[in-house]
Amino acid sequence: MGFVRSKNKNKNKLTSLKSFKKQPSFNDAKPEGIDFAAPSIIKETLPKEINDEGIKLSDYAVEIGGTAVPVRYFRSFFAEIMSGNTWAGMLDSLVLGEFGEGDVDIAVHVRPASNNKELDEIGRRIAGLLSDRAEEKNVSKLDAMEDEIRDLKLRQQRIRMNIERSYRVSIQAVASGNDWSSLKKYCNALVNLFGGKSIVLRSADGYQLDALKSILPTTKEDLVHKEHFFSLETSNVADLFLFGLGGISHRTGIIIGKDLIGRPTWLDGWHPSLMNQHMVIMGRSGAGKTYSIFTIIHRSVHIGIHHCIIDWKGEYGDFLILMGCPYIEFSETSKDRINPYDVDITEEKNGDRYVDIEEAVNNVQAIVFKMITTYERSDLTGEVKVFINHAIREQYKELEITRDPTSIYSSGGFNNKDRFSTRKLKKMPELSGLYKKMKESNIEDVVKVSKILKMFTKQGGAPSYSIFDGQSTVKLKRSPLFGFAINKLDPEIMRPLGLAVITRWTTEKWAKKYPELKKRLVIEECQNIFNDEDIGEVWAESAYREHRSTNTSICAISQGLEVYTRSKAGVAAVKNSPIKLIGIQEPIDIESVRGKLDLSEGEANYLINEAGKGDLIVKLDHESTAVHVDTTDYEHLLFTSDPNDPKYWERKELVKNKLKQQELQGMR
């Protein structure tokens, strides 16, 4: 505060002026190179010590004399990760340092570790846990031990197989400021914020000066104490760096977008490191789920992966039409039909070829049961079930269709060497035939049930209900991309039934038939099949376990995790899908999502607070990263579903013109 002498008519007096010397800004007060190279003072302070300004210090710190300001205080912290895992961008908040009036710097100390020593250490830890487990009675502690043992064994496997390397790592955060009280508040906010993320920041009390010196490039001594080091694997270490960010190690497959620092992210559904090809996609409405799967489908087709889409809401029609690929729409006016009796040749890995009549009978039986129970479940007695099973078998027998691959053809020759046939496929049995057998039965309950089945046949007088009675008109051959639309069917009865028929039909006529082809079956609104206890749930549980042998990936898409936890099939989907794409989540659901999908706290926070449309957490087994789905202008035109987007209407015009051209060509 400055003082000047002022004069007036009566007397002289000292007047205190409320004008201060201009203070340096926060940025001006940051330490410069000279402050470290030749500081005017270096002093390690102790708690309760009083500094030159008369302030009582309450913690260990280091005073450094500066150039822009008289003194700057430094406090060092070492991080301990309590959650047991790392995630991309976990140190972003430290980098930004927006906790108040202060500054923060990060130092990551990395030392290569001997894989053999690390394996020995893990082995000892597993042995200790196994010993403790044998005597532990507390159930919750036992569960925690089981989780740790499982994690340690997976880590042991990764290091042994050289999938990962082991490192000893220490994470150091150095907070600094010009004002002691402001720095204390800054440090408290820093510790509290990261404590909520399961990262404990422990102050380097007693050797703050050593800790500060350890971050200088001129320091030769090893000043970081060994208790602040912990073991991490290669991908974990990469998560700590802005230039690394860990993420997905794939370098084959397709590029689905960019990570947080703009690097391309690859996704290979058939990568050798994955246990199978299945995937799940989830995110609340508007998160960009459909946009993301459009991107995956479009780019995957171009590298030879075949796709079948079961379109619940009719969202894929424009895309498939502009791609020049089959789009089969089911309705009472459409010419397209699928016969649930269709069978084809199944080929085993050892080369054995046969017609799976048992599976076909079970499929048709399940569909017929569902048709009947739609109206009256109590009518489906044991006697009726037995009659239907035998009647379906008789239908195949009457057409002489057996396990023999040649039995499904009517005439011509069969070339065993090249595995193709010049014969024509026989006509398959139909629901009308089954209805006739049931109507002519002398069992009263069977005759009664036949009246319900009649509704789903050509004799029922309801064209929209009889679309699965008759010979199939769909011939897939080796189409690289095609879709089935069921959105025009009755949503209460025929759409769930259509979903059941199509999933089983594609299994027989596509998944099993072409085991040499990489294929992906995309199911939108998958809850409609998982929650179908009559057919869908049984099919899904089987498909997620067995479709790996047919080289087929199941891609289930829905809004939230709760969809997958309502049924055994949904749980099987999550457990058996190493590829998980997770979009924006509701805050109320995030805890259940985090636990079931093994999300870190940082990833969970990203999904509810930072992620926007098209932003995903991509998890591939033990790898994960944040990705923004990035498309070309033409891809955006193909994929966008926003009617407020001019590209949406531009696409509609293109589709209209293409359909008009196809109609003119058909008239010629």
Automatic annotation (TrEMBL):
<dbReference type="Pfam" id="PF19044">
    <property type="entry name" value="P-loop_TraG"/>
</dbReference>
<dbReference type="InterPro" id="IPR051162">
    <property type="entry name" value="T4SS_component"/>
</dbReference>
<dbReference type="InterPro" id="IPR027417">
    <property type="entry name" value="P-loop_NTPase"/>
</dbReference>
<dbReference type="InterPro" id="IPR043964">
    <property type="entry name" value="P-loop_TraG"/>
</dbReference>
<feature type="domain" description="TraG P-loop">
    <location>
        <begin position="273"/>
        <end position="582"/>
    </location>
</feature>
<protein>
    <submittedName>
        <fullName>DUF87 domain-containing protein</fullName>
    </submittedName>
</protein>
